[in-house]
Predict the structure of Putative DNA modification/repair radical SAM protein.
Amino acid sequence: MSRLDTREKLAILADAAKYDASCASSGTSKRDSRDGKGIGSTEGMGICHAYAPDGRCISLLKILLTNSCIFDCHYCINRKSSNVRRARFTAEEVVQLTLSFYRRNYIEGVFLSSGIIRSSNYTMEQIVEVARSLREDHDFRGYIHLKTIPDADPELVRLAGVHADRVSINVELPTERGLQRLAPEKDGTRIEGAMKDVKLAIDDRQDAKKRYKSAPSFAPAGQSTQMIVGADSANDRDIMLKASSLYDRFGLRRVYYSAFSPIPDASAVLPLNRPPLMREHRLYQSDWLMRFYGFTPVDVVNAAGDDGMLPLDIDPKLAWALKYRDNFPVDINRAPRETLLRIPGLGVKAVNRIVTSRRWRRLRLDDVARLSVSLAKIRPFIVTEDWRPTLLTDRADLTKWVKPQTQQLELFGA
C-alpha cells in the first residue's frame, strides 16, 4: 500500500463509511464545555446529516478506522476480495481529526466503524482507544458512536460502552439463512449474544444511577443495529418480525434499514439490481407504526401482501386500514387516542391536537382539516359532528380515492 496523507485517507474512509446508515445521535445525555472545562458538546447545529428527534441537525465525523478487512462478506464493498483502494488511520490520527474538525465548528461528534484487521480483538482495541483518548486525554464532551464487533472480547465491548454515547452491533441480515449464505464468517448467535451483553450492561448502569448519582454511565444513548434490505431473499414480513424481536429482547433504540446497493466486482450470489428505495422507506414507516402508533408486529405484518411484501404505492397504515375496513369509520369525538392513531393520514401530533381540542367542543370536518395535513386521505375513515362517510368506506375502489396521486413536477414551475 502506498503511503497516503491524511487528506487522502479521509477521502477514502469517509466515502467507505457512507454505507452504514445507523449514525443518528439522539437520546444521549446533555454535556457541554461552557464552563471552560473540556471540549465539545452533544448539542448544537451542524452541517452533516444526522438528526435528533426534535429536528436538530447533529454534525458527525463519520469515518472508518480502516476499510481493510479479513472477512469476505459478499454484500460488503470492503470485503477481503474487493478491488478497492485501501487506507487506514491510526487511533491518534482519528483523535486529532475529531478535535481539529470540532475546533473549526465542522462537527459535534464522531461515528466510528471499521473493517476487521488482524483480529476482532485488535480492531476493537483500536476503536476503544480512540474513544478513551478523546474522553480521558482531551476531556471531549461531544457525541461518540462506536460500531462494535460481536466477536471481540466482551470486556472490550464493555469499555466501548463506558466511553461512547451509543454503541451499535449490526445484525446485517434478517435471517440466519441469509447470513450463512452471504456472510459465512459471521454468526447470528454471537451477534445476538453481544447485543444481550450490552443490554445487561445498560440495565445495570441505569439501576446503579438510581442508587448512586456518581455511578458512571454506560452508552446513555443505548444501542442500535442495521439490516441490509434486498441483498437476500428475505421479504418485508421477515424483516419486520426480526426488527420487532430485536426491540423486545434487547431494548434497541433504533433498527436501521439500508437498501442493498450493487457494488463493484460483486459476487455472483448477489442480485443484479438494487431494491426500490421506496421499499426502505416503507420499512421505516412500519417501524414507526410499532414504535409510536401502538401497532403490534402482527398488525404491521398483516399490512403486507400474500407475498410478504409491503405495497410500494401506499403507506403501511393505509394498507392495514384498507384490509380491515370493519374497524372504520371512527368517531373523532369519541374514539380513544389508541384508535385515532390507527386512522390513515393522522400523525401523533394531529391526534394529540384532536384529543386536546375535543375537550372544549365537538369537532367538525373543517376542524379536522385544520388539525391535520391531508383531509382527503382521512375523510373515508372518520365520523365528525357534520360528516359521515356512509357508503364511501365500503367502496370497492376506495384505494383509488385515497392513494396519493402521482404528479409530474415542472422544472420552472412557480
Remarks:
- The beta strands are 50-51, 57-58, 60-64, 109-113, 143-147, 166-168, 223-229, 254-259, 330-331, 382-383.
- The chain has a mean pLDDT of 84.
- The chain is about 40% helix and 10% strand.
- The chain has two domains: 6-275, 324-402.
